[in-house]
Design a protein that fits this description.
Structural class: mainly beta
Largest sheet: 13 strands, mixed
Helix content: 10-25%
Order of helices and strands: EHEEEEHHEEEEEEEE
Distance between the termini: 11 Å
Radius of gyration: 16 Å
Shape: globular
Strand content: over 45%
Length: 202
């Protein structure tokens, strides 16, 4: 595969840090606990890699990282929705494992143990103030926007740099339960976030 690709859509996350995950601001900052445990949920709405149309592909990337995430040593599992074709699943795996360049190539430097990719039914719920994801037999999670002074508008970060998120991100709280036998966590009322994304490589 070449590095000439793009993808855009919805990205949201939850980890076990309190409030805003320090590692979200920068991987050199210490997270709340000894291990940072969480996931990123991805819904691709448009994109292409090597002639493969990525529209409609859904995936979850689950991780177990040290408190100072830049130290590396992460374990990571990619789960791609069953409804994706084999070609779409391979393309998405190439992107989020950093093998075709782009922002995920930076995150891939910290992954010491890439666990085998899984396929499973994945359902994403997308409401204005709430996102949710279910991976059959593995994950149940909800992420809800925190209340602001203007209750009609979300509380956001603006002009914040992050490798995979847009520069404007909605601040939220989330709860999750995940168990694949190798990565296991149960988060309650902890760090949550969502944004649009647009990634390119090449």
């Amino acid at each position: 595969m070449t590095n000439d690709w793009w993808a855009e859509g919805l990205l949201f996350e939850n980890c076990n840090c309190t409030a805003v995950c320090p590692g979200h601001i920068h991987f050199s900052q210490s997270c709340t606990h000894e291990r940072c445990l969480g996931y990123w949920a991805i819904r691709v709405e448009a994109g292409e890699l090597e002639g493969v149309d990525l529209a409609g592909v859904v995936a979850v990337i689950v991780y177990d990282a040290p408190s100072v995430m830049v130290d590396g040593g992460w374990s990571q599992r990619i789960v791609v929705a069953e409804h994706a074709s084999a070609e779409q699943a391979t393309a998405l795996e190439q992107i989020v494992s950093g093998k075709v360049g782009g922002p995920w190539e930076v995150l891939a430097r910290f992954v010491a143990e890439p666990l085998p990719t899984r396929r499973a039914p994945i359902a994403i719920e997308d409401r204005p103030a709430r996102k949710a994801v279910t991976v059959a037999g593995l994950l149940r999670s909800t992420v809800e926007a925190i209340r602001g002074r203007d209750r009609a508008a979300p509380v956001t970060f603006s002009n914040i740099y992050n490798q995979i998120h847009d520069s404007t991100q909605v601040i939220a709280r989330g709860s999750s339960e995940y168990d694949d036998g190798e990565i296991v966590f149960a988060n309650e009322g902890s760090h949550g976030l969502w944004s649009r994304f647009r990634w390119t490589g090449g």
